[in-house]
Write a structure and sequence with these properties.
The complex is a heterodimer.
Chain A lengths: L5 E9 L6 H9 L6 E2 L12 E2 L12 H6 L2 H16 L10 E7 L4 H14 L8 H5 L3 H10 L4 E3 L7 H14 L5 E8 L4 H9 L29 E9 H6 L6 E10 L12 H14 L6 E5 L6 H15 L7 E3 L2 H4 L6 H15 L1 E2 L22 E2 L6 E8 L3 E8 L2
Parallel strand pairs in A: 4-5, 4-6, 9-10, 9-13
Antiparallel strand pairs in A: 1-7, 1-8, 2-3, 6-7, 8-14, 11-12, 13-14
Helix pairs in contact in A: 3-6, 7-13, 10-11
Chain B lengths: L4 H16 L12 H5 L3 H15 L5 H4 L5 H12 L1
Helix pairs in contact in B: 1-3, 1-5
Classes of the chains: A alpha/beta, B mainly alpha.
Amino acid sequence: MSVRRVVVTGLGATTPLGGNVSDSWTALLAGTSGVRLLTEDWAQTIPVHFAARVAVEPSEQMERVEIRRLDRSEQFALVASREAWKDAGAPEMDKERLGVVIASGIGGVTTLLDQYDILREKGPRLVSPHTVPMLMPNGPAANVGLELAAKAGVHTPVSACASGAEAIGYAFDMIRNNRADVVVSGGVEAAVHALPMSAFAAMKALSTRNDDPARASRPYDLNRDGFVLGEGGGVLVLEEYEHARARGAHIYCEIVGQGLTSDGYHIAAPDPDGAGVQRALKFALRDAGLSTKDIVHLNAHATSTPAGDVAEANALRAALGADADHVAVSATKSMTGHLLGGAGAIESVFIVKTLQDRLAPPTINIDDLDPAVTVDVVRDKPRALPSGDIAALNDSFGFGGHNVVLVFKSL
Amino acid sequence: MALAQADVLAGLKEIVEEVAGIPAASIEMDKNFTEDLDVDSLSMVEVVVAAEERFGVKIPDEAVTDLVTVGDAVNFIVNAAN
């Protein structure tokens, strides 16, 4: 069997910067922060008073009845998938060759907590019969699969903040391995709630810059103090190359490799040597059949935590050596906040747009670049990328020591 | 307290509109919950719990399977209340 190549033919997103891909991308290039003070009463009772909520509420994009049967994470998945599917031209195809892989880091956590409140206040009889389908982490994938009648398999990898990237890698493999011709893939997260935020704050993982929320997510800045929780989701339609050509689909770019490793180091802290990240980078390039010279852009994981940003930059430098000098590194979480299981997905959407427009998005909020960061960070304004064949990387890491690297190539 | 059939129907219409998003005006006695109103087994649980709360009646699980149409539910509630 000949090698089955995998291309991107559709994009969808709902992010703190916009209710679709186009609006999100425009705001991203403009260096806009999606981080705001939360208006809910509970926000003032916990250590962190801000987050990056989606720019457009799902209630403005869906029917009321759909909303009440779906967890917020599932709403994001449907909003982004509908856009992506339409963008791909809603292919007429054998549904036994259509798959869905959509991840979430935490699943329907707000449903679980809301229903627990109902249980305690009103008793078990008023617990919603929709609770289980709403809280299960595979709910976003399952609902999208149901809507599209996908029958090649519906999957949900869970690896904390690497989940979104892992989902896209899983979809990539489904097509390469001839299980499917088209896979709707991505990640979502909807965890802006007092409990998850208090829990992340207890780990000292969140920024507490309450007096200046829009400046709180500052990857690579010397005075970064933690990540900002974001919400939303991103979806990519992956398709086998000949299948896409045969139906005359618009092809954005190709996915050519992935690298997956685990640290075996600590449940939450990154390995300061970044050995696992280095191995993932090397495996991904080898899988892609590319050399370090081919890489011109990295949409970094860079969450704005003191330890993580430097460990990642060091790993990139170690894995790419002098070739890291020509990699334009963008930390888009400086604008979107950290979408946990949705992060690798929206960042993959951004990489596809980066390759399409040949523009690497900026990193905002760097007042003083941390001197320990020895990679070339794109600051404040977008940067033009070279013409010709170019390739870009998405790396995502998750609590538990999960490392995922995806390789995208212009076509 | 005795309940009038018309009042129960009006209340049930509001419940079904809330749960299933079907406009109250299109909900009539002969409508089938599953086939006409998109009320699946999970949503039927919501309808039943909401109806119990609203009309102050008990609708046992074994009775729910017999409530095929809106009229079945209205008649059950009227009888249970009287």
